Amino acid sequence: MVPTDLRYTKEHEWVRVQDGVATVGITDHAAEQLGDIVFVELPGAGSSVSAGKTFGVVESVKAVSDLFAPVSGEVAEANAELDGKPELVNSDPYGTGWMIKVVVADVAELDRLLDAAAYEALVAAE
Amino acid sequence: MTERVTPEAAAAAAQAGPVPTGAAIPPGAGPALQPTIFELSRPGRGGGKVAHPPKDALDRIPAGMRRTAPPALPELDEPTVARHYVNLSHLNYSIETGFYPLGSCTMKYNPKVDEWAARLNGFAALHPFAPDENAQGTLQLLWELERALAEISGMEAVTLQPAAGAQGELTGILMVRAYHRARGDTDRTEVLVPDTAHGTNPATASMAGFTTVSIPSAPDGGVDLEAFRAALGPRTAAIMITNPSTYGLFERRIADLIEMVHVAGALAYMDGANLNAIMGRFRPGDAGFDVMHFNVHKTFSTPHGGGGPGAGPVGVRGALAPYLPVPRVLREPDGTFRLERAGERPRSVGRVRSFVGNVGVLVRAYAYILAHGGRGLAEVSEDAVLAANYLRKRVGESFEIPFDRVCMHEFVASAAGLKRETGIRTLDVAKRLIDHGFHPPTIYFPLTIEEGMLIEPTETESVETLDAFADALAAIAREARETPDLVRSAPRTAPVRRLDEAAAARQPNLRWRPAAGAETPCPD
């Protein structure tokens, strides 16, 4: 079951929007598929990200994968704790394993994201 | 009912004495782990007398260049050193101890005669700065090897310089860049790479300054032609394609793909890593490929693994020959050979490696090619494909085969069904294969296959070996259902038990340090 209060991308990122700031991470399904995550590379605060474009890299014992931004905007904060504890992405993907916070430039972009039901259907179809 | 000997029982029977269970063995270690050479060191022990330099020798070295503390070298007698390394070598698994079906790596048996050739004094002892007139034999060998690779691939010219397949890729793509630039065609900034490609392909494109565009696969395992058509355009510099692909499948639409690439004004690069499947049957040059690299250490018999040694020659069609790295080996009208001189071919992409390449690897390739001849090389590929297809059918008895059609030299199997049924993953199966006496196949690659295993038997294995491997996989599938903990805790008979790969990657510990308070010559 995926959290119902979040929005999702086809590339398995999740978004939680609060007061115009989107917190972004990867889903439990993505973390499970990647296996033990050993390194997360994130953009610094102040850099900008664009919806659908890569914003960082996640490396597991199996593979290195791009991270895709669900929304466009300026990065307000990156999760510095992942530097020393990338395993948080595996153990708590929707909580302490979050990756970046983005000041959303265009709220209309959020409408293009998947809701929980649509994301679950996507995972089931894989 | 017959009693099957478990790997544990076999290992226990082979164990000379009781398994030591002392606390000295670190966690994760099996009984056979060896102490490091530093731990074997005893102060003052040595293996012979080394003549001391004259007393004033040190005075001739500038004070600032002299070390202030003695080097931290271990102190041992010669028999201990010899035993240490021989015992370590016994822990090693190689193609000469057993089957090594590591997909994509072509771990074939390497004939000893090729080792003999590479060690001939005239090759092995030749100084890289030797003048051309003293290196005629080696230069002739290199020149003839270029011709042989050109004939095998259908390419027109070859450089032997790159030190490995990945460097060959980079050399090839740098030539593609130079080709477009020379024509003033500078808007071509993208390289198309199918999602089944070797990871080095997108890395190569990036290193050469291009943007990589990933092309998805169609359900049959080939390139999705519609997605490819949509991505192809005036910004496309090249497509990099591995054929056969990393699914072990021959790209059926290869002629269409190359034609579309050329119509769009781009070039076609072939990753020749899987050459072992196609010799004598498919020449990339004839199919229209413009550039390709060869992993000669794989196809042409240099023992490799763990990062080397290799060589990655690159073949090109005529239009790209001006851009080949310098120096090329030239044959003069009088039949002598020489290296190109500086500035002789100004459009070259330059030098990509010191001297003329990894000559030892190239001598082995030359020896292998001549020993087999054209017909023999075709037979190599035929047997490699036959072995892979036989094993595909046998492995298919216990695991899923995602693309169950005739494969080339390797095939993909999947433990996805087993995982759903028992929770046992491909990683567990791979570790358990070690207990059954086999090197595991490549796992979790290609990335697009869930719980994938890429299995490449090569042409040098007997049907008995292939059967034994398939039987081991079937036995592991049974174990996964009946005694899953056995599989989950594998390997149990190896020098070390299951390693914590995540911790190793998160906190790499690459250097041995003495335990606190230990007596050692290594003070830090």
Summed up, the helix count of chain B is 17
The number of domains of chain B is 2
Mean of residue pLDDT values of chain A: 93
Q: What is the 3D form of chain A?
A: globular
Which structural class should the secondary elements of chain A be placed in? alpha+beta
H/E element sequence of chain B: HHHHHEHEHEHEHEHEHEEEHEHHEEHHH
Uncertain segments of chain B are 1-5, 12-27, 519-524
Helix amount of chain A, in percent?
10-25%
CATH topology of chain A: OB fold (Dihydrolipoamide Acetyltransferase, E2P)
Unreliable stretches of chain A (pLDDT < 50, length at least 5) are none
Summarize the helix and strand pattern of chain A as letters.
EEEHEEEEEHHEH
Largest interface comes to: A-B, 12 and 7 residues
Major sheet: arrangement of strands of chain A: 1-2-3-9-8-5
Q: Which range does the strand content of chain B fall in?
A: 5-15%
CATH superfamily of the largest domain in chain B: Type I PLP-dependent aspartate aminotransferase-like (Major domain)
Note down, in words, how this protein is organized.
- The complex is a heterodimer of chains A (126) and B (524).
- By secondary structure, chain A is an alpha+beta fold.
- Chain A is built from four helices and nine strands; from the N terminus they run βββαβββββααβα.
- In chain A, a hairpin with a 2-residue loop joins β2 and β3 (21-26).
- The longest helix of chain A has 10 residues, at 116-125.
- Chain A is globular and about 35 Å long.
- The mean pLDDT of chain A is 93.
- Chain B is α/β, with parallel strands linked by helices.
- Chain B has two domains: 1-41 and 78-106 and 409-513, Aspartate Aminotransferase, domain 1; 113-370, Type I PLP-dependent aspartate aminotransferase-like (Major domain) (Aspartate Aminotransferase, domain 2, 3-Layer(aba) Sandwich), CATH 3.40.640.10.
- Chain B has 17 helices and twelve strands.
- Chain B has helices at 7-14, 78-91, 112-119, 121-124, 136-153, 165-182, 200-207, 225-231, 254-263, 284-287, 296-299, 359-395, 416-422, 426-435, 463-482, 484-488, 501-506, and strands at 157-159, 190-194, 211-215, 236-242, 267-272, 291-294, 314-316, 329-331, 337-339, 411-414, 442-443, 452-455.
- A seven-stranded mixed β-sheet of chain B has the order 1-7-6-5-4-2-3, with helices on both faces.
- Mean pLDDT of chain B is 90; it is low at 1-5, 12-27 and 519-524.
- At the A-B interface, β4 of A face α17 of B.
